[in-house]
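Teaching note: in complex prediction, the entire set of molecules is handled at once rather than each chain in isolation. The prompt given to students was simply: 'Predict the structure of this complex.' The entities are:
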Amino acid sequence: MITTVASTEIPVHLASQKLFSIGDFGVTNSLLTGAISLLLLLAVFGYVVSMVKHGRYNRFVGLVQWAFEGMLSQIDSVIPDKKLARKVAPLALTIFFYMLFSYWMSVLPGLESITINGASALRSIAADLNFTFAVAIIVMVMVQFYAFRAHGAIGNAKRYLRNPFKDFVGAFEGILELIGEFSRYAALSLRMFGNCFAGEILLLIIAVLTSYLSVALLPAFMAFELFIGFIQAYVFFILTVIFTGLAVESHGSHDDHSPAAHPKKATQHE
Amino acid sequence: MLQNLTYLAETAHAEASSDLFSSLGINWQMLLFQGIAFIVLVVLLGKFVFPTLMKAVDERQAKIEEAGKAAAKAEKKAEEAEAKIEDVLKKARTEAADIVTTAKNEATQMIEKAESQAKTRSDRIVAEAHEEVQKDVLAARKTLEKDTISLVKKAAGLAVASVADDKLDAAVIKKSVEGAQR
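The expected output is the structure of the full assembly:
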């Protein structure tokens, strides 16, 4: 998909473009940028971990540690079970840091000007639906896995499938929950993709519309995109944690939530 | 601009009607590859990176908690010590006040005793002195009396050596003595 704005051609592609092939496997621009983000992330964490292991600290290590600690405390506050929180942490933290690095790659100057085989060489992997969908599917599977472990197969199935003759409203609620289970992950991936993709387009349009003035204007929009990148990475991360927390949360029997059914609990709440 | 938007919408509609997933750029092979790559990344970071950072965070939190506990303990100890000091000071103040009071009382008593002793002694000395003086006066009087009598005797003896007898002598002497006594 290519469109033009004010007689200047702006390439707008929803799908990532193939740059070259390794055997049968086509390497796309988002994949290349994703690999660069990955290397950057590994380099940063490798450096920080080696510094921490040797007990040496500087401002950069402190900053990464501060961010890490902040995210970890968020997980701990959302998931009260500390053991489970520590199990969920690697996935959630990887999502946050990798999404952040990937999103910030979209702010790199010259993202659209460097081309290979006519296609722009760099495109943030967060602006590739394949990636955001893949991560959302992984999150969904992991959430189901933790819910399965917490409630068992029947307990987990009961969250969606209930006897309509016994509890009609509950059965309807279960169907809605099942639909919601898919829609929330679709929304999770589309939100990240949409923001990153729109951010790249926004920077391109600003650059084209403002021409030479873009030297002065673009930095402000780039800073804004960095901020949006942080927000989006955080949203993806915190929703992953919240979905896990909600899935493993014990509600007791679905048939009766009244305080009369749980006198002890009700007394405690009072 | 309107043309561009129309073009964009038309293209999107055409692509959506043909194949939604391919128009969105979803390639199942690519999705699977990226998913697996991401899982590998999660495993790598979860095994080699996050444990170290989590350990550091836990250690720091443990240290903070420990420091907090130590601070609370130290504060409690300081409060206890302060209370103890306050008690000791109170005790010391009371004791000092008692000592001062006792000392004052003792000093007063000693002064009073010394004063009374001094007074008694001085009274005694004065009395003794008076007595001595009285004695001296009496002795002097007696001596004077004797001297006077002998002088008068001599004088009278000399003046009336030839006419006076012993009776007259005695009368004259008595008169002289009375005169002397006055």
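Point out the following to students. Strands of chain A lie at 2-5, 8-11, 18-22, 25-28, 115-116, 119-120. Residues 168-210 of chain A form the longest helix (43 residues).
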